[in-house]
Structure formats: C-alpha cells, structure tokens
Amino acid sequence: MFIVVGVTGGIAAYKSVQIVRLLVLAGHDVHVIPTDDALRFVGLTTWEAISRNPVTTSVHDDVPTVRHVALGQSADLVIVAPATADFLAKQAAGLAGDLLGTTLLATTAPVVVAPAMHTEMWNHPATQHNTGVLRERGVHVVGPADGALTGGDSGPGRMSEPEQIVAAALAVVDAAGDLAGMRVVVTAGGTREPIDPVRYLGNRSSGRQGVAVAVSAAQRGAEVDLIAAHTEGDALEGARAHPRVRVSQVSSAEDLQAAVSAAAEAADVVVMAAAVADYRVDAVSEHKLTKDTSPDGTRTLTLVENPDILAGLVASRRGGQTIVGFAAETEPDRATLLERGRAKRRRKGVDLLAVNTVGWTRGFETAENTLYLLNAADDVVAEASGTKHSVADALWDAVVAARSAR
Ligand code: CTP
Question: How far away, in angstroms, is 315 Cα from ligand 1 center?
Fold first, then answer.
C-alpha cells in the first residue's frame, strides 16, 4: 500500500519513527510528511532513512511532480501521528498552508489521526469540538491514551503506542480485500530439534517469506494464524503489528505439527512455508552433553524421522480446503528444478507448490526471492520474483485462482 504518514510538532514524533518502521517492515511504500515544527523533534534524515523514500516539507519542493497533491492522490491510507491540537484545528477548518494540509485536502483515502498533547489541551472545548468535526467527516481517531506525559504530569493526552496506531490504521483499510472472510493458517521459520537443554539441530530459514505470506493474506482481508518456528531478528514484527494476524511460536517439528493441525481444522487455506527438520534426535539428553567423544574423535547422534506434517494435513483436509506447500531446492537448472517440483507436488498431494531456489547466498536470508508456483495440473501458474512481499502477493493470486477454478 502507498501510505502517507504525517508528523506534526510534538515530542511524540520520536515514537512515530517506529510507526514508519513497522509499516515499511510490513512491505508498505511509506511517504513521510513532517511539518516544519516536527523537524525540530526528529530530523529529515531520520525520516528518509527509515521510510526509504525522499521526504519534503514544502509545497514549493519537487514542483514538476505536483507533489502538493500527488502524495494525497496516490495514498491508500493517511496516518497523522502525533496529531497536535494545532493540527486538529487546522484540519477541522480545512486549512492547506503546508504540504501536509494540501495532501489531506487532495486525498480520498481513509485518514487516521493519533492525537498527542497535554490533558488540558485535549480537554479544551476547542480541541474536543475540532476532533468531533473530524470524526463526523469520517476521520478515524486513535487514542489518546491515559498515561505519563512529558513534564511529569499524567492523564489523557499521551499518544497511543505505535503498534496500536499501525494496527488500527491497517484495520481501517484491509477489511474489504479479496480474502475477506477467509481463515488462513501459515507456518514460517525453521524448526529446532533439541539435542540437549542447550543445543539443537536447526536450519537457515529466516521465516521472512512465511511472515510475508501471512501479512499479505491479512492485508487482503483474511484472518490469519501464523505459526512461527524459529525466525530471524525482527522478522515477526510486521505480523505482530497487524490486527488480523495471530502469532503463535513453536520450536520443534512435533510442536509445529500439534499447533498447525489444531489451527487447520477451521482453515480455508493452509500454507506450509516453514522449513521443517526431516529428522530429530532419537534420545534428547536431559543434561548438557559433555565432551566425551569416542577415541577416534567422533560423536554419533541417532536421528529418527519427523512426521511429514504437510502429508498429514493433506490426508485429513476438510472439504474445500486449499493446501499450499513449499519446496526449498538447490537445483540450478530450471527444467530439472521444475521436474523435481512437479514430482514433489504429486508426492505431497497439495493444490499448489511454491518452488523456491535456495543456496548459500540465495533465498534464505535475502530480502528478495524467486518462486515458481505449480498448480494441481502441474502447470507453472506464476514465476514470481522480487521482494518477499510481492512474491507473497503472487502466491495469494494463485490461491484465489485455484479456488475459483474449482
Ligand atoms: N514439510 C513438512 N513436514 C516435514 C518436512 C517438510 O510438512 N517433516 C513440508 C514443508 O513445510 C514444505 C514441504 O513439506 O511445505 C516440502 O518441504 P521440503 O523440505 O522441500 O521437502 P521434503 O518432503 O523434506 O523432501 P526432500 O527433503 O526430499 O526434498
């Protein structure tokens, strides 16, 4: 989504950096419009770096692109956080004396504002009246919360937390997508199979592709259960920020199986993007193993096969349920890769298989990915390349097509 984030001049502007960050992490194209006052709290460089887009503040900048209305016309959503008392008054009056003002008059997108000010200012009849006018006009008001304010006082006026603002804003726009009303289960990340209390067998899955699949579904209106095995760093943040994604964390393949089987009972679509370990250690040691290797310097761990979770889901699928598998392959030759993919799709019995090329430098930890999507007739319905979010969107296009073809 093309999202404009307006930032007005309050100390809570520093918290809006996190709003922008969460939106960017969730795959959105974010354009920040700070007022001149806002720049006294957080500088332009920060907004550009965090939004990954150029930032201007004046209606006289970038005139050939007609920027004073272009951002508002392109926006799918506008968030203003913090929204000062002064901003609310200007908005209620329809003033357009700066780039944020012109943008707001030029947009037909939903507008979400998060007021932040001292309690007296918030309670003032003028502010209450202005907020009422904006509400009547369809503007969504998030907060303010009741809590500690700058200066040691406390009361209503504190800006809502960034995660709440993002969740509320996304909920306003998402509910009408092509997956609205669907229940979706997505697994992501790599399982960890314990060896002893401090060691495990794992894999290099970052979980980012699976999380992107979950967030993309939620953005298209689905209710999503994201079952995450081990994921890298901040990979789960975008999912946690979305009000329609419920995140649960698991560790081993057996944990994942228990969680996904329970969630799948009510699901319309299940996507197994997790990298599940094929084997686990036969006897997990209760105590940390000591370094008592055999005389030849080796140590033997006996591995036993894990259940094939995907095969189990296919065997117990309910009527009308669509099941999507992933195949992480290192085969460099396209034709051989697709042949392997087709054989795996048939073996697993899934409606769609996303064939993903991985290697030491490809697929796992990178922001970009390439997927070949094979349908139940073994046709390549899409060859999607790009950010993990755009690839996730292509996957949902294929799911929608497969469901409507039935
Ligand atoms: N999968 C699963 N349970 C397992 C192993 C894999 O549910 N024990 C799922 C993965 O989540 C993925 C699909 O099966 O959606 C294919 O995983 P992959 O590792 O590519 O295939 P394998 O069945 O392990 O086959 P191979 O290792 O021989 O390529």
Answer: 15
The answer on 161 and 64 residing in a single domain is yes
Tell me how far apart the alpha carbons of residues 216 and 91 are, in angstroms, rounded to a whole number: 32
Would you state the structure tokens that stand for residue 194, as one six-digit string? Answer: 């314990």
Judge residue 312's burial from the number of C-beta atoms within 10 Å of its C-beta, 0-12 exposed, 13-18 middle, 19 or more buried: middle
- Contact indicator for 237, 280 with CB cutoff of 8 Å: no
- Cα of 279 to ligand 1 centre, how many Å? 11
Q: Do both 17 and 154 map to the same domain?
A: yes
Find the domain containing 98 and state its range: 2-176
**Best mutation site among 186, 226, 260, 276 for ligand 1 pocket (most ligand atoms within 8 Å of CB):** 276
Question: Same domain for 40 and 172?
Answer: yes
Per cent of the chain over pLDDT 70 is 98
CATH number at residue 96: 3.40.50.1950
Q: Which atom from ligand 1 is nearest to the alpha carbon of 187?
A: 11
The answer on 110 and 218 residing in a single domain is no
Please tell me whether residues 346 and 206 are part of one structural domain. Answer: yes
Give residues (CB < 6 A) around ligand 1. Answer: 253, 272, 274, 276, 278, 306, 308-310, 325-328
Same domain, 35 and 156: yes
Task: Note the pLDDT tens digit of each residue in 170-212.
Answer: 888 876 689 989 999 999 999 999 999 999 999 999 999 999 9
